[in-house]
Every structure is written in structure tokens, then in C-alpha cells.
Amino acid sequence: MLLQAYIINNKVMSNAQIEIQIIASIAAIACAIPGTFLVLRKMAMISDAISHSILPGIVIGFFITQDLNSPLLILLAAVTGIITVILVEYIQKTGLVKEDTAIGLVFPALFSMGVIMIAKNANDVHLDVDAVLLGELAFAPFDRLVVSNIDLGPKSLWVIGSILILSIGLLFAFFKELKVSTFDTGLAASLGFSPAILHYGLMSISSVTTVGAFDAVGAILVVALMIAPAATAYLLTNNLKRMLLYAVGFGVFSAISGYWVAHWLDASIAGSITTMLGIIFLLVYLFAPNKGIIAVLYREKQQRTEVSLLTFLLHLKNHTEERERNVNHLNEHINWQKVRSKTVLDLAFKNNMIVIKNKIVSLTDKGDAFTTKAIDYIITNKDTQIEYMKDDFFLFRG
């Protein structure tokens, strides 16, 4: 994809443009890994809380080291992220408020504490709120890592890249444990895993990832990169490995395409990437084959029609009088409108479940067997008898 975008208007991209896209792509991959598990655990908004509440940890680390590039800032910010999660869970467990309310109480308080600490103790430090919240990827290539007069590239690339390697290593090492504890904490505990350790480990790597991307891409884009690709992938698959791959793919595509949208519109890079994430999610939300809104609406419409079909067939099975089965009077006896009656009649006839002779509708052997098995399935929920019907009828797919 980088090669395809390499030549725009017959001009070769500058090193800065390439580095911006690489930084954004690596940040997207690093965020997608913990983000997938946060979405599956229904903890998506905790990433928003972490991304804002880590500011006090960064400030305290700066006060101790007087160096914005010190690893201590990342460590203390990660600790602050864990404290955020603990506080949110503690408030939630009181039963007085829900999780979203607890998040709304904790992260503004911690973020405000960080701002106050800067205002009172570091007046000579410039806090750019736009840079903190929105980030400025355009400036990331200019903050270089130089060792022995050797330019090793942007510092943010090394920071985020290191965190990505750590995330991938932990993912491979604890994939089975994370998978089991995500879907069934009881089973995880019975197998000897510690759900609490895995939970706070996930929160730790989420905090570290947030801090690593904080300077380059900003808090808002970190949240978007953690949640939007994972939520989009969730609509397309139930397989965890595929979900991780899809989330990574959507994140990288949005990072690169968002950069070029920003380049074309002369707009914020972080804002454009977030917009692309939203557009991709919207498209998948509408058109996903199984969970997309159009597919769901179509399936519900078909199921309503099939319920009507079953009602119609049951009416024929329970009524032997010709007057009750006359094609011209069915809508009156079942209390349906003529359009609905015709739709159901056509569906039954198409599937060879009825025959019409002298305007009298009768069940075929297939229709009679279908009705009996369908009613039995509805009562017992045992689908061995109707397995062969699942391909033709949404009603029996669950």
C-alpha cells in the first residue's frame, strides 16, 4: 500500500511523509491488539479513561527526572492507568453507579489533577491542549533519536515500535490464557489461570500503549485506534485470530488513507485518520454480511414472513372445512391484509408446501411434514429434524 501511494502527482514522497505513515501504522497495530480484547470484554470506554487519566503519571515522572523522554514517564503513566481501572471498578462495585458513570467520575478528576500540577509547579512548561488531545503527527518526524551522531529516526517510532514488539510477544505468550479469560473467567480460574492477573496485565499493556502513542497521535486518536478497528472487525467475524488480523488491517488502512485525506484537504492528520476509521465502521455496520444493519433488517423481515408462513400452514392443518381454506377468503379467516396473504401464499406454493385445486388450498405431504417438524422444533428446540431446512429458512438459523 505504501508503494501504491509512493508516487502522488508524479512527486516522490519525502522521508517525513513516509515516516508519518509508518508511525501512524505502527500505532494502529499496537492499539488494535489490546483494543480487540477491550471490545470483547465490553470495556471499550476504559481506554478513554486511561488515555486521559495518565496525565498525572506523566507529570510526576517529569518532576522526578526533568526529562520528557525518560522511560519513568511511561512507567508511572502505566501505573496511573492501573489506578484508574481500580478506582473505576471499586466505584462500580459499590452498586451505586454504573460503569460509564464511574468512568465519568474518575478520568476527569485525574486529568484535572495533572493539569493543576502543571499549572502550579511547572509554569515554564507549555501544555498544548490541542497537541495532547488531538496529537500532531506532522511534527513527529522532527523529534529525532540521535546516538553517537547517528540519526536513528523519529523517537516516537522507536517508542511505539518497542511497545508493539512487547504487545506481540505477550500476545503470543498468553494468547490461550487471554482467550479463555475473556470469554469465561470461571473456566479460566478452573484451568489454573488467574483472571485478575490477566485482567490487570491487559490494562497495563493498554496503559503503556496509550502513553507510547500519546505524544505522537494524541489521546483522541489513541482511543479511536483502540476501539474503532476492533469494533469493525467484531461485526465481520466471531473468530478471535481473524478479528485481530481484521482490526490490524482496518487500523493500518485508516492510518495511511487518513494521512492522504489530510494531505489533500490540508487538514489535521489525526482528525482525518479518525474520520476514516468512522467511515469504515459505518460501511461495515451497514453492509456486514451477518451483523450489518441491512442484513439484520432483511433477516428480520424474512423471519416475519416465515412465521406468517408457519401460521398459514398451521391454519390449513387444523381446518378441514373448504370454506376455511378457500383462496379468496384466507385473509379474512387469518385476519391478514390481502397483500400479506398473497406473499405468504406465493412463498408456500414456491416451496411446494401447498396445492390449489378449485380455489381450495391443501397441504402437500412436504407441507404437512414441514409444519409438524417446525412446531416440534419450536416446542422442544431440538433441531435434528429441521437441519435440512436451515439453508432455505431464516427462522431456523437461530
UniProtKB/TrEMBL annotation:
Keyword presence, Nucleotide-binding: no
InterPro entries listed in its UniProt record: ABC_BtuC-like (IPR037294), ABC_TroCD (IPR001626)
Keyword Lipid metabolism (UniProt): no
Subcellular location(s) of the protein: Cell membrane
CDD domains reported for this sequence: TM_ABC_iron-siderophores_like
Transmembrane region(s): 20-40, 49-66, 72-90, 102-119, 157-175, 187-205, 217-236, 243-262, 268-288
Gene Ontology annotations of biological process type: response to zinc ion; transmembrane transport
Topology within the bilayer: Multi-pass membrane protein
UniProt xrefs under Gene3D superfamilies: ABC transporter involved in vitamin B12 uptake, BtuC (1.10.3470.10)
One GO term describing the cellular component: ATP-binding cassette (ABC) transporter complex
Predominant cellular place of this UniProt entry's protein: membrane
Keywords per UniProt: Cell membrane, Membrane, Transmembrane, Transmembrane helix, Transport
Family per similarity comment: Belongs to the ABC-3 integral membrane protein family.
Name under which the protein is recorded: Manganese/zinc/iron transport system permease protein
Originating species: Seonamhaeicola aphaedonensis
